[in-house]
Amino acid sequence: MDMSALRFALGTVNQAKRTAVVLATGTEPICLAVPSGVSAQPLSEEETITGAINRAKAVLDRVPNADIGLGLEGGLTFDDRYTNQWYLLSVCAAWDGRRLCLGKGLFFPIPNSAVERIKQEGIELRTIIDEWSGTTGTNQRGGAYGLLTEGRIRRSEVFRDAVTAAVTPFVSALYR
Ligand SMILES: O=P(O)(O)OP(=O)(O)OP(=O)(O)OC[C@H]1O[C@@H](n2cnc3c(O)ncnc32)[C@H](O)[C@@H]1O
Questions:
Q1: Which residues are in the Non-canonical purine NTP phosphatase/PRRC1 domain (predicted)?
Q2: With DSSP H G I counted as helix, E B as strand and the rest as coil, what are the percentages for the chain, rounded to 5?
Q3: Could you tell me if 54 and 33 are in contact, meaning their C-beta atoms sit under 8 angstroms apart?
Q4: What ipTM did this prediction achieve?
């Protein structure tokens, strides 16, 4: 599947997300930080998806010579049905001005104690992952996935799959 003829605009300058687009598409996106329009720490799947869509539309507005705007958003969601557990969700929205597609990366459990702190202290997941890692900027590198799996899964790889899923309907003849 050749995506190299398409120009992608990405609604962030986050390095893990930029790497994800390069891995998924084989091209370097035009990166521009745009507002997500949702809270800095989304706490539901709906808010996470809305943030991704807002970013995809906002970046294509600002980079009109791109073919597809991409919005990548990380967020947390609580499963009260099966597991009583919080999960991290990594969503990609792809928008070409007419058609909108979504891709969701790996759904990964996050310690409930972390999310209790996020809610009580009004902090973001990255603050806790940085603290547990003893470093800063984890959200630009392996992220929570990297820390919790001891490096077996990285944030860029999870978003890579979300980007691949969201862009596939634009490039595969099977969706026409
Ligand atoms: O620069 P932008 O594109 O805004 O990227 P971000 O990482 O700051 O922001 P997101 O909107 O994707 O994620 C919402 C919050 O959740 C945090 N987060 C999401 N996934 C994470 C991960 O894998 N590791 C650490 N923090 C994560 C993130 O840092 C934010 O505080």
A1: 11-171
A2: 45, 20, 35
A3: no
A4: 0.96
CATH of the domain spanning 8-175, picked from 3.10.150.10, 3.40.630.30, 3.90.950.10, 3.40.50.1260: 3.90.950.10
Radius of gyration, alpha carbons of the chain:
16
At 66, the amino acid letter reads A
pLDDT 10s digit of each residue in the chain, 176 long?
Answer: 778 889 999 999 999 999 999 999 999 999 999 999 999 999 999 999 999 999 999 999 999 999 999 999 999 999 999 999 999 999 999 999 999 999 999 999 999 999 999 999 999 999 999 999 999 988 888 999 999 999 999 999 999 999 999 999 999 999 98
Cβ < 6 A, ligand 1 pocket: 12, 14, 17, 36, 40-41, 73-75, 88, 124-126, 129, 138-139, 143-145, 155
